[in-house]
Amino acid sequence: MFDEKGILFILSGPSGVGKGTVRQRLFEQETHLKYSVSATTRQKRPGEKEGVDYFYKTKEAFEKMIHEKKLLEYAKYVNNYYGTPREYVEEQLELGNDVFLEIEVQGALQVKKSFPEGVFIFLFPPSLEELKNRIVSRGTESSELVINRLKEAKKEIDMMSEYDYVVVNDDVDLAVSKVKSIIVSEHCKRERIEKQYKKILEDDTDARTIN
Ligand code: 5GP
Prior knowledge:
- The protein is of the alpha/beta class and 211 residues long.
- It is built from 8 helices and 9 strands.
- It has 2 domains: 147 residues, 3-Layer(aba) Sandwich (Rossmann fold); 61 residues, Guanylate Kinase phosphate binding domain (2-Layer Sandwich), CATH 3.30.63.10.
- Helices cover 49% and strands 19% of the residues.
- It has a 5-stranded parallel beta sheet with strand order 2-7-1-8-9, sandwiched between helices.
- Helix 1 crosses helix 7.
- Bound molecules: guanosine-5'-monophosphate (5GP).
- The site of guanosine-5'-monophosphate has 14 residues, from strand 5 and strand 6.
């Protein structure tokens, strides 16, 4: 009766912002989320496990997955492929489970095309937040250093426009609690609740109609 699909959450952001740490801490606390394990051609690091951290693939095997359209998205990052297996994500969403992806930005943009209804969370570098505070508190800041840094920052800030939420990662626990709040808020969205109730009412009306 309550055939509501799960919600797809995508955590992304610039390289080095701490996505992996936030995701790990989140999964220590949230048991209902399903983590989508990515495929990669990079070498396994000490302590990592096949099927837990990644599905480790050869370049040939990965390219076969691309060819067979088995990936929801993929990207090349530091000379290695990384990609999200499509089947697991689609299955879990159908079952009504929330799915969580932690991927770099090129991949997130691809997901946006096939899952525009996904919830896109941009993890924001604390260095940029500091930069903003410095400029705001000093009024017009014109030091060359800040201007150069701003130019570099512009690219990262431009990426933000594709996302629904921005979480500054200045403190991991705080960032995790913000991501958890986003998950709760999304489940309370009027559109989602309304759709569920309308469906129940429609089904019930159909069942009671006597011709
Ligand atoms: P690492 O090699 O440190 O585990 O990950 C490198 C980068 O790849 C990180 O930014 C991580 O978020 C990203 N990444 C991990 N899995 C995927 C994936 O399936 N797709 C994309 N596009 N990026 C991924």
